[in-house]
Protein 1
Amino acid sequence: MFTQTVEYALRAMVCLASRPEVPQSNSQIAATTKVPSAYLSKVLQKLAKAQLVHGQRGVQGGFVLAQPAAEITILQIVSAVDPIQRIRTCPLGLEAHGVRLCPLHRKMDQALAQVESAFASTTLAAILAEPSDSVPLCDFPRPRCAAAVSPG
Amino acid sequence: MFTQTVEYALRAMVCLASRPEVPQSNSQIAATTKVPSAYLSKVLQKLAKAQLVHGQRGVQGGFVLAQPAAEITILQIVSAVDPIQRIRTCPLGLEAHGVRLCPLHRKMDQALAQVESAFASTTLAAILAEPSDSVPLCDFPRPRCAAAVSPG
DNA sequence: TCTAAATAGGACCACGTTGTCCAGTATTGG
DNA sequence: CCAATACTGGACAACGTGGTCCTATTTAGA
């Protein structure tokens, strides 16, 4: 239902949000998120174009969030890499349906709207703050770990 | 978000449900639903394997619903051609997440669950019965038309 | 200034989905 | 039995997504 690219983008953003201070390089993020690094670089480029991250070249460079995690929603991330296509006009091109969709497409669009709304109301910060047995991207069960594996 | 195949399958099922008595041939359905007929035949085969429609060969053959429209849900149709993949285990394969997903994947799966639930609670009959300005697959605005274009 | 680190971005390939075409087979009617 | 109808199913082409690789460019620091 969601594309691989969306999954990757969300992982990368969670990774960045979990250590907001230091820039993280493509390969660091790739290691933490288990995303193929060459492909991750494409995804990060899309996120950069959408102004969600900022990439800094050169030694000590890497990526940082372009805004505080509390101000970035899941929907923004999804929209940056693979926007949810709402159904706005009849897919059959029937004149009579135009903007007022028939019950079938109305139902489908309602489902899309629900997803959109759920994603719009969830920020990166909320994801990281949520109490849980497990922490995003982190392989040890208990809390108190900084959500990302600390590099050796 | 939803695949083309899902869209086609739903159209075909609505088409069949709108005239439950007579079998409709592939090309009739294709014309009504504006789906490429060669591809529609693949979709109908999937629906047949899922026991949602029954195909009858030979003269006067065609497809009919295998169950009453009131007993077929949108979810069944979607599942037949392109099942919604719920997130059941951590996509990163992290041991600690196992069944108890981290907040990120929990959120994503909740969105999937919402869609699933919306589709599970909607039947074909409900789609056709719903009052609306426009009728599925039908290009004239007012009700009282049988939801499918009557053949000349 | 030179080198190493790191992003930016283009070219390219593999694969699944979508879509087409064609031969095979069942069914009805004459 | 014959012919027309219509589903069944396999082979194959077009296309977009996911994924790899290689080169150019920027930047920090010795």
Protein 2
Amino acid sequence: MPKLTERQKLILALVIRSYIETAQPVGSAHLVRRFNLDFSSATVRNEMQTLTELGYLRQPHTSAGRVPTEEGYRYFVRQLMGQSELPVATKHTIAHQFYQAGHDVDRWMRLAASVLAHHSQAASLVTAPHTEQARFKHLELIATHGRQMLMVMVLSGGDVRQQMLSLAEPVSQEQLSAAAAKINALCQGLTPEGLAGVTAQLDVLEKDVIKLVIDDMRRSQDILGGEVYRDGLTHVLSEPEFAEVDVARKALRILEERSLLEDLLARTIMNDAIGGVQVLIGGEGTWEELRDCSMVLARYGVPGLATGTLGVLGPIRMAYGQTISTVRYVAGLLSDLVVDLHAE
Amino acid sequence: MPKLTERQKLILALVIRSYIETAQPVGSAHLVRRFNLDFSSATVRNEMQTLTELGYLRQPHTSAGRVPTEEGYRYFVRQLMGQSELPVATKHTIAHQFYQAGHDVDRWMRLAASVLAHHSQAASLVTAPHTEQARFKHLELIATHGRQMLMVMVLSGGDVRQQMLSLAEPVSQEQLSAAAAKINALCQGLTPEGLAGVTAQLDVLEKDVIKLVIDDMRRSQDILGGEVYRDGLTHVLSEPEFAEVDVARKALRILEERSLLEDLLARTIMNDAIGGVQVLIGGEGTWEELRDCSMVLARYGVPGLATGTLGVLGPIRMAYGQTISTVRYVAGLLSDLVVDLHAE
DNA sequence: TTTAGCACTCTCGCCTCGAGAGTGCTAAAT
DNA sequence: ATTTAGCACTCTCGAGGCGAGAGTGCTAAA
């Protein structure tokens, strides 16, 4: 990796900035005019030539301006961009919206998707926090009709799960309540593994229930078991790079197909630390699906307790600074939410 | 509304069938060849001319084939198409998938969206059943930490709602349980209005809780308060009529923006009977947003108990027969689910 | 090392033109 | 009175040609 001179860095950064704004290849003369550079277009041309040889720029055709390559964007994001922060006023506005939503996870998720989409002018996605180490907190059994009953279960973090089921024979509400009370007393704070250990002390009905509880807790630990929130899908269609419908379709498929998404998230962000923001530029060679787009991803939450993922999908020509800081900030807010929900 | 001769009906139907298949304007000669008609292309031309004058067909330009107008599609759907049914085998496959999902509403909704999208090759949307006359069933109060507590509430139909809240001062789990028990005993089966009447007999804590319960029940009655499930968004991008990105964007906006959707559903399907399928072709003059698309909508559920909406969004050139029967069948299945959930 | 000058290249929009498809009319046939 | 063959006419669509404009890369001077 050869070192760039300061002037080369400057020019690369300016080309990228200009291209992100206009989506047009940028020419040497245009650059000096636009940014009042104190060296001439000929100099810029020379520098551009070496930047092209280094693989950071390319020309769509012989006599057009230069366009950043993916490698160019990566260099920009890693070395040139610096850490930008959202303006304080913006942060306040966002935080205010969130805190108005109380402790309603669903509203937070929707809001997060909406804020991300709006501030990055791209498509966003947010996964609900999924409990990594679910702990049993409370169980309720409610008779509804004949042998039908409703099981409602509260896990650590306020995760509520419900299930309807038919029993072998009718059971009164009193019996159900007693069973629930016994289980509640016995199982406080246990993990699924722990729960499996207490079944010995229970009778048939209670054993059946516990089995369901364990199943359900296990299910709550699936990465994408919970809901996936999306927003701003129409934004990506506004970008000129998605004027080709097939390109747009490929991009939307990433967000729509759970299996793709799952694979993607599993292989990138899941083995990453909380707090970091990961930037995927143009598929990085491995992801055919997002050859023409970039993603900015982050995890939020508390490792070992509950975590989730959020991110943005847009064209490679993306305002990375703005997007990265938005993603980072929202991830922080969602982490706060997780902490609050698990406070104990 | 002038009466069409049988031959005119035949030709209109064939033009539409052909156009739905190929998306190409259909010419007179092409039509006789394709369907082995026993009259000549000149005759077809004459009939097409009168169909054009009647407003059922039009020509994109002087010397192209004919294309159905929206009026033409409407006539086709109302008069010519007949009631088509899904093949029994298909029905079985679909039903089987659903019954494997147990009583899990979330899974049913996802499945419904997926089935609709798949069988109509278009975008689908399904709203979760929303309780029309919510009745109180069960309440649970769980202390979590300090003055924080979690309220879990079960409504008729197995609708579970949860909320986290901070109390003015710490309250023990015993006190909370007692309060919940009292409310449960007192409020069984009441509507929000009924609940407002019993507050006199309660102390401060219980009154506060009841107030939240009423709020939450009211919220559960919002038309679009629940989740909206979508699928097959990429399908619409495959259709040639959405090759123009702006057209595609307008279509996707309908599905993405809650406010648009809410307005749309409120003004069309909500005052319609269960079991009927409503077909909106090309905006019908009122809906600018869906000038270029059609929707097939239906309500499902039990009026007075819980209902929801489901439907499909696709190009005007849509296989209405297939789509309508799919929508009707899935609506029936979802209605069965609602009945099951409310069985009592 | 930087810059002015200049020839060269390539795209893009615009035009033209011919092929092809499909129509509408007229006159003959049934 | 319908239906049909025949034919002139219209319009789109794609291919090819052409000129303007933008931007480059090189060379030679500063």
